[in-house]
């Protein structure tokens, strides 16, 4: 087997091992892609474990605050369109601004899988950080919580105003669905064999 550098040297067993571990990890990620509900259930378990850890240790609030800011940033990317009509005027897919405009699907700046992966990875990293006392900075947590809530409300208000202005909904809830022909009542009944 040749090395990564392409110089013809044999790869070290350690590199081969980590490449194999990474390949298996990527395989599991690829297999989990269509299972959205199960992925989010697993993430909810990770979040619960992190919350219990912070609650019982009674510390690491600054890590939780930083995690909250990062998650807010991810949420904004998840709710935003790929091409922002305010910033970028391009020939690519854009949001319709009038009723007579052609339908263009909503394409997220941050796709759901990447949102889930970053969300879960952030909680795992924050959980590991709670085992190191150097990250347990003494702070008055109610101030951090109030500041985060104010930041969340202001950011979401701006995002919702953007959604209203450009008339897009980043979710499938309430959108018109086009399906095939619905079976008639007589054909969906029991068969007379």
Features:
about 190 residues, mainly alpha
Quick overview of this protein structure:
By secondary structure, the chain is an all-alpha fold. It has five helices and no strands. The mean pLDDT is 82.
Annotate the secondary structure layout.
Blueprint: H1 13-32, H2 36-57, H3 61-79, H4 112-129, H5 141-166
Helix pairs in contact: 2-4, 3-4, 3-5
Q: Care to describe what's here?
A:
Helices cover 54% and strands 0% of the residues. It has 193 residues and is an all-alpha fold. It is a multi-pass membrane protein. It holds the Pfam family Rer1.
Number of helices: 5
Number of strands: 0
**pLDDT < 50 stretches:** none
The ordered H/E elements are HHHHH
Name the shape in a single word: globular
Percentage of residues in helical conformation: 40-55%
Report on the biggest sheet.
none
Average pLDDT score: 82
Strand content: under 5%
Which structural class matches the secondary elements? mainly alpha
What's the end-to-end separation, in Å? 64 Å
**Rg, alpha carbons:** 24 Å
């Amino acid at each position: 087997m040749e090395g990564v550098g392409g110089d013809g040297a044999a790869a070290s067993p350690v590199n081969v091992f980590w490449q194999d571990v990474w390949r298996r990890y990527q395989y599991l990620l690829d297999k989990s892609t269509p299972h959205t509900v199960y992925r989010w259930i697993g993430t909810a378990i990770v979040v619960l474990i992190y919350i219990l850890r912070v609650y019982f240790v009674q510390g690491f609030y600054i890590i939780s605050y930083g995690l909250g800011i990062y998650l807010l940033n991810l949420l904004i990317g998840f709710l935003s369109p790929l091409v922002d009509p305010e910033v970028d005027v391009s020939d690519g897919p854009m949001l319709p601004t009038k009723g007579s405009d052609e339908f263009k699907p909503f394409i997220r700046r941050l796709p759901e899988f990447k949102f889930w992966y970053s969300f879960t990875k952030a909680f795992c990293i924050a959980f590991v950080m709670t085992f190191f006392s150097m990250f347990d900075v003494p702070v008055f947590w109610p101030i951090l919580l109030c500041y985060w809530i104010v930041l969340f409300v202001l950011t979401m208000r701006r995002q919702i105003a953007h959604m209203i202005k450009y008339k897009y909904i980043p979710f499938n809830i309430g959108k018109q669905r086009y399906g095939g022909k619905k079976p008639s009542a007589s054909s969906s009944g029991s068969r007379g064999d």
